[in-house]
Amino acid sequence: MKPPALLAFAALSLAPAAHAADLSGLWIVSTSFGPTPMVIDCSILQVGVALQGWCEPESAEAVPLTLSGAINQNSASWGYDTTVQGRPVRLTYQGAVSADQTAITGQLAYGTSPPAGLSAVRK
């Protein structure tokens, strides 16, 4: 007969674990830089709690920029370095992931400017 502690451990190891949201996929982010509305496509690959991929504003001169970040349960953050009006700046996205994992709401921080609101939807 197996000891009760061993049986309890075996039962716990078979129980489903609480997982963070999976953000892998294409996201369409809506935000603004000052008074200018902006739409940014972000392709995210989640490996464990780490986020990687790229983001690219929907504009003619835009290029994809490599992102990195992390997710903690249903709170996600990622960012990348770019140039805004000729100056280097770090863009940092932070937000809450919806329960159905199809939307994110939060803020976009960039440089010394006040944070802008953001909303993202999974494409």
Note down, in words, how this protein is organized.
- There is one protein chain.
- With 123 residues, the chain is mainly beta.
- The chain has a single domain, classed as Beta Barrel (Lipocalin), CATH 2.40.128.120.
- It is 9% helix and 59% strand.
- It has one helix spanning 4-14, and strands spanning 25-33, 36-47, 50-57, 65-72, 75-84, 87-97, 103-110, 116-122.
- An 8-stranded antiparallel barrel has the order 1-2-3-4-5-6-7-8.
- The N and C termini lie far apart (53 Å).
- The model is unreliable at 1-18 (pLDDT under 50).
Question: Stretches where pLDDT falls below 50 for ≥5 residues?
Answer: 1-18
Topology pattern, helix = H, strand = E: HEEEEEEEE
Specify the CATH architecture.
Beta Barrel
Provide a count of the helices: 1
Total number of domains: 1
Could you say which structural class the secondary elements and strand pairing correspond to? mainly beta
Number of strand segments: 8
CATH class: Mainly Beta
Major beta sheet, specifics?
Answer: 8 strands, antiparallel, barrel
- Please tell me how large the radius of gyration is: 19 Å
| Overall 3D form | globular
Summarize this, please?
The chain is mostly beta strands. It has one helix at residues 4-14, and strands at residues 25-33, 36-47, 50-57, 65-72, 75-84, 87-97, 103-110, 116-122.
Helix and strand arrangement:
Layout: H1 4-14, E1 25-33, E2 36-47, E3 50-57, E4 65-72, E5 75-84, E6 87-97, E7 103-110, E8 116-122
Antiparallel strand pairs: 1-2, 1-8, 2-3, 3-4, 4-5, 5-6, 6-7, 7-8
